[in-house]
Write a structure and sequence with these properties.
455 residues, alpha/beta, ten-stranded mixed β-sheet, globular
């Protein structure tokens, strides 16, 4: 597809009546959207699930520490797109341009501004090898057999059903990334979502399929300015790795004030495949990530890494599941969070080993660093073992910054901010050092430094 070609993603292919119906509620919007049959069916099934499923409450153990009693999804309007795809990177929002300039080593780039796909590029050499990188609407028209097999096919836990259904019902778009067997994508595929429509709900989906023996690195980045009126971001991720495939996936969330972000991520790893997952959470007022690794094939491997830094009154909730469904699989989770001001975080993780999943090797570690007496963190690691020949362990810590370390560093001539900076980056280093892309790592470091300086 040539640069500058005018296309519309899922939210853009609506009739005028669909646009008019937004003000009359989400149900009218769902009924009015016109798109390929598969997407239309999934949208309506999602709405049915949303309507029939109760909103999670704090009576549920999985939502005990995140209060949704004042959360009203139907107060938001789905974002739409009325413009054409921009022809030049110079026309993209400034934060997206800055990110693109920080690291040019990308095999493909997709930039979405609210409901619009404004920029799309994929290296011609990869296109010639059969790699597909396309908005979901185009994929539904040109590759329906792929979407029929994979889209919204992950096993979703009951605690996710309500928001997963809403995500499908108000889908604003997303992308399909398909890598054929044996193809090695050497440089990252980078997708940007920029949200600045106040009162809007942006719902996007990442469908990543790596066939046998292939490899790819994907980066999803979420950016917004500070918003006066609340906006809602819903994100679904489905990753399918066939035998011997390797997928590295990074979600970098840097929304501004006024955004609530819910992300539901599912990786499905086949025999001898590898999934390296990274989550970096720095923005939004409320951010919840449900991250599940389904180890479905014998010898599958999953590495789950995350870091977050909360300030002001941010609330971050991470819920993880390492689901070992096959023997001789390995998973390793390391989640680290630092908190200052009145921010707080929740980590709830579960290693679940099915009957027959012998020789499972699974680890889970959560570390929390408190930089303020008013910050708080909850850590709840869990094991559920159904096999008898396994090696599983978990651990979690929550602690204030070590005053003796601060005193030592300050006695060497550093002020308190500089000393805290060294401690924070030392704390994050074993996760941050494994984030793909030097430009991305540099921008993460810059964002964390800004939070430290803003205390």
């Amino acid at each position: 597809m040539a640069e500058g070609t005018v296309t519309r993603d899922m939210s853009t292919d609506t009739t005028q009546s669909a646009a008019d119906s937004i003000a009359r509620g989400l149900a009218s919007y769902v009924r009015a959207v016109h798109e390929p049959t598969l997407l239309s069916r999934l949208r309506r099934e999602g709405w049915k699930t949303f309507v029939e499923t109760p909103m999670p409450t704090r009576k549920s153990e999985e939502w005990r520490y995140t209060d949704l009693s004042n959360f009203d999804p139907e107060s938001f309007s789905p974002v739409t797109c009325e413009g054409e795809r921009v022809k030049s990177i110079s026309d993209l929002p400034a934060p997206v341009r800055a990110a693109l300039a920080s690291d040019r080593e990308r095999a493909g780039v997709l930039a979405r501004h609210n409901g619009c796909v404004e920029h799309l590029r994929l290296d011609e050499t990869l296109q010639a090898k059969g790699v597909i990188y396309a908005p979901l609407l185009e994929a539904a028209e040109e590759h329906p057999e792929i979407l029929e097999k994979y889209l919204f096919q992950s096993d979703v836990a009951p605690m996710e059903q309500k928001l997963w259904g809403l995500h499908a019902a108000v889908l604003s778009g997303g992308y399909l990334l398909y890598v054929p067997a044996g193809v090695q994508v050497e440089r990252p595929i980078h997708t940007f979502r920029y949200l600045d429509e106040e009162g809007g709900v942006l719902s996007t989906h990442s469908l990543i399929i790596a066939e046998a023996g292939s490899s790819v690195t994907c980066i999803d980045e979420y950016v917004s300015p500070d918003l006066e009126q609340e906006a809602l971001s819903l994100n679904g991720v489905e990753i399918f790795g066939a035998e011997g495939a390797t997928v590295s996936y990074l979600a970098l969330q840097q929304y501004g004030r006024g955004v609530q972000h819910f992300s539901m991520q599912h990786s499905n790893t086949g025999r001898d495949s590898t999934l390296n997952g990274f989550n970096v959470t720095l923005g939004a007022d409320l951010a919840r990530a449900d991250v599940t690794s389904h180890l479905e094939g014998e010898g599958a491997r999953s590495e789950m890494l995350a870091l977050w830094f909360g300030d002001r009154d941010q609330h971050f909730d991470h819920h993880t599941l390492q689901h070992h469904e096959a023997p001789s699989a390995h998973s390793d989770l390391l989640y680290k969070g630092a908190l200052t001001a009145n921010s707080n975080s929740v980590f709830r993780g579960l290693i679940k080993v099915a009957e027959g999943a012998q020789l499972t090797d699974a680890y889970q570690t959560n570390r929390n660093l408190l930089l303020s007496p008013d910050a708080s963190a909850v850590a709840l690691p869990n094991l559920e073992i159904g096999a008898d020949d396994v090696r599983c362990s978990h651990g979690a810590t929550v602690g204030q910054v070590d005053d003796s370390m601060l005193f030592y560093l300050m006695s060497r001539g550093l002020d308190r901010e500089q000393a805290e900076r060294l401690l924070v980056f030392g704390f994050f280093d074993e996760v941050l050092g494994r984030v793909p892309g030097e430009g991305v790592r540099s921008r993460i470091r810059g964002s964390i430094e800004a939070k430290i300086q803003g205390r």
